[in-house]
Structures are given as C-alpha cells and as structure tokens.
Design brief:
The complex is a heterodimer of chains A (125) and B (113). Chain A has 125 residues and is mostly beta strands. Chain A has strands at residues 3-7, 11-12, 18-25, 34-41, 47-53, 59-61, 69-74, 79-84, 93-102, 109-115, 119-123. In chain A, strand 4 and strand 5 (47-53) form a beta hairpin. Classes of the chains: A mainly beta (125), B mainly beta (113).
Chain lengths: 125, 113
C-alpha cells in the first residue's frame, strides 16, 4: 500500500521560504511512471494544484505560482520536496502531497491517488 | 486554464434518498483520440485528504460502494449517490486532468437532512 507523509514547519514568517518534504512508502519514486505532486487547500476552501516532479527531476508548475516555486526529488531517501519563497498570508493553507500517473513528458497526468494526510502551514509574524 | 464549476455548493439529502452533484467544465475534457473523459470525483471527509471515487468520468475506484456512480461527457458531468448513507457526509470535488494545470471544482458539501 502506497503511503505519503508530509513534514515541515507549521509556521513561516512573511517574506521567508516555506519548505516541505513528502516521504513515500510502499513504492519507489525511482521506478518512474508517476508525477509526485503538491496540492494546497486554503482554510475552508477548495483544492489548488501547485505542481509536480518526476523521478528524474522534471518539474511542471502551476503558472499562477511558478516563479516562487522550487521542487526537488531525492530518490535515495524516497522523498520529494517543495519550496515556496517570499510567502505571504495568502500562502496559508493545508499542503498535501499526492501521486499521479504520468501520461506524457508535457506535464499531463491522470487523477491523484493516493494523497498524504496534509500539513497546515501558517504564514504569520 | 479549464474552470470547473460545481452545483450546488451545498446539498442536504435524507438518508436513503438520492444525491446528485453536477460539474461543468469550461472546455471539453473528452479526448477524441481515445473517447475518454478526463474527469475524476473525490470525496473529502473532515480532517482527511481527498479520496478518489470515480475516474474517467464513470469508472468506480476499487472498494468504492456501488451506490456511487458518475456520468456525463464533454463538459457536463454528474456524481450520483443512489441511497445516501450517514458515512457519505463529506465535501465532493470534481477534477479535470485533461490538461495542465489540472483544476478542481470548488466543492459541494453534502449533509443529512
């Protein structure tokens, strides 16, 4: 059974960098065929796809957020990570990692399954 | 970006009755090459992540009760719960994965009347 678990600070100051890691168990990131994804959910709101990364490090970001994002992958630890710089209160959200089967090299994937439990990140001084 | 719009925003249905949630996309998510609709439905219960119920618009995920069904094509889709159970109280989201960025509906909150 594939499981994902997010980790990282729950509180980040404005203008600083949000850093999160997702640890995968039950499957190897190195096996390929999937996009490892980040999605966020603002409090009481819907879901927003942030971006994803392949096992080889190819990234696809949501253009609405792209310039502030950096994703990386560490196959040796079976982890992938997200950094969002210059955060504001608008970045306060539950951040979830998820897996999606990749369809091509252009960033198109299938549905998200499974998902991590999610971690709340609050941006506040 | 493809905009996904769900209706209604919230819904109260009696136990054992039918619940219907609609999802409309701003662009067709039907692929002409394989005749598949790139549309999924998720269920999210409080404090839990979303769980996929339906993909390809009408294919039920393994383990999902058969009271859940998906229908529709092109731009208009429906999630139906044929006989509402107490454990179905949740927020439901549609999701298009036809093209990047993939996008979600705003969610429909389903409650017991």
């Amino acid at each position: 059974q594939v499981q994902l678990q997010e980790s990282g600070p729950g509180l980040v100051k404005p203008s600083q960098t949000l850093s999160l890691t997702c640890t995968v168990s039950g499957a190897s990131i190195s096996s390929g065929g999937y996009y490892w994804s980040w999605i966020r959910q603002h409090p009481g709101k819907g879901l927003e796809w942030i971006g994803y990364i392949s096992y080889s490090g190819r990234t696809h970001y949501n253009p609405a957020l792209g310039s502030r994002l950096t994703m990386s992958v560490d196959p040796s630890k079976n982890q992938f990570s997200l950094k969002v710089n210059s955060v504001t209160a608008a970045d306060t959200a539950v951040y979830l990692c998820a897996r999606a089967k990749s369809r091509d090299n252009s960033g198109n994937s299938d549905w998200f399954d499974p998902w991590g439990q999610g971690t709340l990140v609050t941006v506040s001084s | 970006d493809i905009v996904m719009t769900q209706s209604p925003d919230s819904l109260a249905v009696s136990l054992g009755e039918r619940a219907t949630i609609n999802c409309k996309s701003s662009y067709s998510v039907l692929s002409r090459s394989n005749n598949k609709n790139y549309l999924a439905w998720y269920q999210q219960k409080p404090g839990q992540p979303p769980k996929v119920l339906i993909y390809w618009a009408s294919t039920r995920e393994s383990g999902v009760p058969d009271r859940f069904s998906g229908s529709g094509s092109g731009t208009d889709f429906t999630l139906t719960i044929s006989s509402l159970q107490a454990e179905d109280v949740a927020v439901y989201y549609c999701h298009q994965y036809y093209t990047t960025p993939s996008t979600f509906g705003q969610g429909t909150k389903l409650e017991i009347k």
